[in-house]
Amino acid sequence: YANSAENLRQARAIQDSPYLHLLFITRLYNAAVKAPVIEPVVNEYVTKYATRPDRFLAQSYLAHTLLRDGDKARALPMLAALLPHDAMSNSNASIYVQTAGAEAPQAAASEAALRAALQQNKDHGAYLRYVLAFEVCRDRLKDLPKAKQVLRELLQQSPSDDGYTTSAVDWLLYNSASDDEFKADVALILKTRRDNVHMGNLRESIRTWQANSRQNKDYKDKAAFVAAELAKADQDPLVKAWIDQRSSQHGPGGPIREQLRQPATFNTLNDRLAKALLITQAEFYRHYGPQNDRA
Predict the structure, then answer these.
(1) 156-169 mean pLDDT
(2) Residues 226 and 209 sit within 8 Å (Cβ to Cβ)
(3) Where are the alpha helices (DSSP H) in the chain?
(4) CA 24, CA 22: separation in Å to the nearest integer?
(5) Rounded Cα–Cα distance for residues 95 and 98 (Å)
(6) Mean pLDDT along residues 118-129
(7) Side-chain half-sphere exposure of 109, counting CA atoms within 13 A
């Protein structure tokens, strides 16, 4: 990495660009340079490109370099300041929580910082809630009801099509305090599934949980309940249509998506689902639909 960084330094001297500058910062970090080496390069980037979103990534490399150097006093507030803008790069939120400490006052401060970040950083809402629920509320505060509530907020307010949401589904269903709580969480998950039926991992997460749990003597009754509720949910016209349309490459899906684009259905969709529908149909018409429709 040191040789790579040196070549990038020389390339920048010939003709600089945001791409080369940020790549130089990345290679300096990879080369394990000390903070006094990387800090002026980061500060230069932030000054020159003050409106670029990736300036927060540059600052993240500096914060992590400070941590590597043992300068927690500077690194911790720098990480906290990054959370409202870029919580995910270099696992900023998780590293912040780990660095802040596990004692009750420290965990409470981490909770406050993550909740404050959530007010501004909507794009990283699923990740922030994942870290808040598991690393802070469950593991440090030992507050399971609070952890569950944060995961329910993840499903309601910031669902994602990845492990943050599928982990929330699994943990909620495996850790219910009562049958009523379990049934309420199943209902919430199925509603989130319908509202975000275009997210394949999210959509199948409860089915995967049911398949994995039906042979477990402690969960087989709950798995049977989920199977029955899931069978009903799959008959919802929107869910059934989306599953049947498959993808932009599936020829019979084109007419199904056209039906979903009719105002009676389309006007009921949330923005995430409406956007996914339109993009899928656009790709169908551009690449896979009948020749006459590709004009």
Answers:
(1) 97
(2) yes
(3) 2-14, 18-30, 35-48, 55-68, 72-82, 92-100, 104-120, 125-130, 144-157, 163-174, 179-195, 200-213, 220-233, 237-245, 253-260, 263-266, 271-283
(4) 5
(5) 5
(6) 98
(7) 14
